[in-house]
Design a protein that fits this description.
Shape: globular
Largest sheet: 5 strands, parallel
Mean pLDDT: 91
Structural class: alpha/beta
Distance between the termini: 10 Å
Low-confidence stretches: none
Helix content: 40-55%
Strand order of the largest sheet: 2-3-4-1-5
Oligomer: single chain
Radius of gyration: 23 Å
Number of strands: 14
Length: about 425
C-alpha cells in the first residue's frame, strides 16, 4: 500500500521545528500501519508501546510526567530509547490520557527524541485532560483516496491520469477511469477493504470486511456511555448515512429521542471522525469558516464503501447503472467528492446556501484554490439547469468559475464561467502534487 500522507510524516521526521506528533483518524484508516511500515524504517531503533494493551504501564504516567522517569521505566520493557536514533511510538494513546499530557514535557525537555502517537476517539481523551497546546503537532488521516486505491491495484498509469489534466485525455481514457471508479464506490478506501479486493477480487469478501469495521465502530459506541445512549448513537449513525447530501435536522435523525439528545449523538460521532459536518456559508469568503452557519449543515460519512454497506445499497442493480450519478440517487457521487475534497484540500468542508422567501438555492461544496473560492456541483450534466450555481456566480463575481463534476469527459463553457469535469479529476483542479 502506498499512502500520500507518507510524505507528510517524513517531512515531520526531518523538520527542525519538530514537536511530538499526534496522528488523528477513525479506527482502521491505517494510522498504525503508517508508523510501523513507513516512518519506523528511517530509524536505527523503534520502540512501540500499545497503551491499550499495556495498561500496566499507565502507572508510569500517573506517578510523574517527568520524561526521564517515564523513559527509564519504558526502557525496562521495550529496550534502549536514544534521542536522535530511536522512534518512540505510543499507540492507542487515548487509553492513557495522561500520556497525552506528557507530550508537552517530552517537547520541552527531550526535543531530540522523535515521539509519535496515534489513536482513535482521541477527542474523548482530550476531554479529560489539559491539551498541550503549542507543544504538539497533528496529522489527520482518512481512508485511501481513489488515487491511492489505483496504486494499490497496480494501476499506476491510471493513477497518474487521475492527477493529470483531463482536457488532454480522450473519452476512452475517461471512460476507463470512470468504470474503475464505479468499483471504488462499493469497495471504498478503508485499507483492509482495498487489500481484500486486490487479493481476492471478491465484492462479497469486501462487504464482509466492511460489516466487521462497522461492527467495531458500534462496539465503540459503548465507550461513549454515559454521555449518550448507544441505541441513540446507532440510530443517528444510520440515519446520517441515509441523509448524505441533504440538510440535517436533528429531530429527523432519530424519532425515539429529543433533538437535543440527537445533536449530542451527532457531535460525538463527528468527534470520533466517523462522520463529518459540512456547514453552510451564505457569503463565501476566505476563510470559509468565518461565514459559516453552524445551525445549517449537511453531513458526509467517513468512507464511501462503508456508506453503501450501512445503507444496504442494492449492489447488483446499482452496478448496472451506466451513469455514476444515478447510483443510489447520486448520494455516492456526492460522498465521493466530499471524501476527496477533505483529503486533498484538508480542513473542514463547506457548501453555499441562500434562504429566500420565494426560493432556496444551494451549491454542493466550496473549494479553495490559489486564494479563490470555487463553487462545486455534483450533477449528471444531462438534466438540470444548474440554477443555484449560476446564481452564486452572479452574486459573487470574485469566484473565478464554477466546477461541475459529472460522469463524463472534460468540457468548458467559458461564457458561463463553467467547467464540466470527470468525477475523479478533483485532485488535478486543486493543484494537488502530494504523491507517495
Amino acid at each position: 500500500m502506498k499512502r500520500s500522507i507518507a510524505q507528510d510524516i517524513m517531512r515531520w521526521r526531518h523538520s527542525k521545528r519538530r514537536k511530538p506528533l499526534i496522528i488523528r483518524g477513525a479506527r482502521q484508516v491505517g494510522k498504525t500501519w503508517l508508523v510501523d511500515n513507513v516512518l519506523s524504517k528511517s530509524f536505527d531503533h523503534f520502540v512501540k508501546i500499545d497503551l491499550e494493551k499495556r495498561r500496566d504501564l499507565h502507572i508510569h504516567f500517573e506517578e510523574s510526567l517527568e520524561p526521564g522517569a517515564i523513559l527509564n521505566a519504558l526502557e525496562l520493557v521495550a529496550g534502549r530509547i536514544i534521542p536522535g536514533k530511536t522512534l518512540l511510538f505510543l499507540d492507542e494513546i487515548q487509553a492513557c490520557p495522561r500520556a497525552v499530557m506528557a507530550l508537552r514535557y517530552f517537547y520541552e525537555q527531550v526535543p531530540d527524541l522523535h515521539v509519535v502517537t496515534a489513536g482513535s476517539l482521541l477527542e474523548f481523551a482530550f476531554g479529560q485532560i489539559s491539551i498541550p497546546v503549542g507543544r504538539v503537532q497533528y496529522l489527520n488521516m482518512g481512508p485511501m483516496t481513489f488515487y491511492e486505491y489505483l496504486l494499490a491495484l497496480d494501476r499506476d498509469p491510471m493513477a497518474e491520469a487521475v492527477l493529470s489534466d483531463p482536457a488532454k485525455s480522450g473519452k476512452h481514457v475517461s471512460d476507463m477511469i470512470l468504470a474503475e471508479l464505479k468499483k471504488y464506490f462499493f469497495t471504498g478506501g478503508m485499507p483492509e477493504c482495498v487489500k481484500i479486493w486486490r487479493d481476492t477480487s471478491s465484492m462479497l469478501e469486501v462487504f464482509q470486511v466492511q460489516s466487521e469495521i462497522l461492527d467495531s465502530f458500534r462496539d465503540d459506541f459503548s465507550k461513549y456511555t454515559p454521555k449518550v445512549d448507544p441505541t441513540c448513537l446507532d440510530a443517528v449513525f444510520l440515519n446520517t448515512a441515509g441523509s448524505v447530501g441533504e440538510q440535517i435536522k436533528y429531530t429527523r435523525l432519530n424519532h425515539g429521542h429529543t433533538g437535543q439528545t440527537n445533536r449530542k449523538a451527532f457531535d460525538l460521532l463527528a468527534k470520533a471522525r466517523v462522520i463529518q459536518k459540512i456547514s453552510s456559508c451564505n457569503a463565501p469568503g476566505i476563510p470559509l469558516g468565518a461565514n459559516a452557519n453552524p445551525k445549517k449543515f449537511k453531513a458526509a460519512m467517513l468512507d464511501i464503501g462503508l456508506l453503501q454497506r450501512l445503507c444496504q445499497v442494492p449492489v447488483e442493480a446499482e452496478l448496472r447503472q451506466e451513469n455514476l450519478l444515478d447510483i443510489y440517487r447520486g448520494k455516492l457521487a456526492e460522498q465521493f467528492i466530499a471524501q476527496e475534497l477533505w483529503t486533498w484540500q484538508g480542513g473542514p468542508l463547506y457548501y453555499w446556501s441562500r434562504d429566500a422567501r420565494s426560493s432556496n438555492a444551494e451549491v454542493d461544496f466550496l473549494a479553495v484554490h490559489d486564494g479563490a473560492v470555487y463553487p462545486i456541483e455534483v450533477k449528471s450534466g444531462k438534466g438540470g439547469s444548474l440554477r443555484s450555481l449560476h446564481l452564486m456566480l452572479e452574486k459573487y463575481p470574485h469566484c473565478p468559475e464554477g466546477w461541475v463534476f459529472y460522469s463524463g469527459e472534460y468540457r468548458e463553457l467559458p461564457q458561463q464561467k463553467l467547467k464540466f469535469m470527470p468525477l475523479y479529476s478533483l485532485p488535478f483542479f486543486l493543484g494537488s502534487t502530494n504523491r507517495p
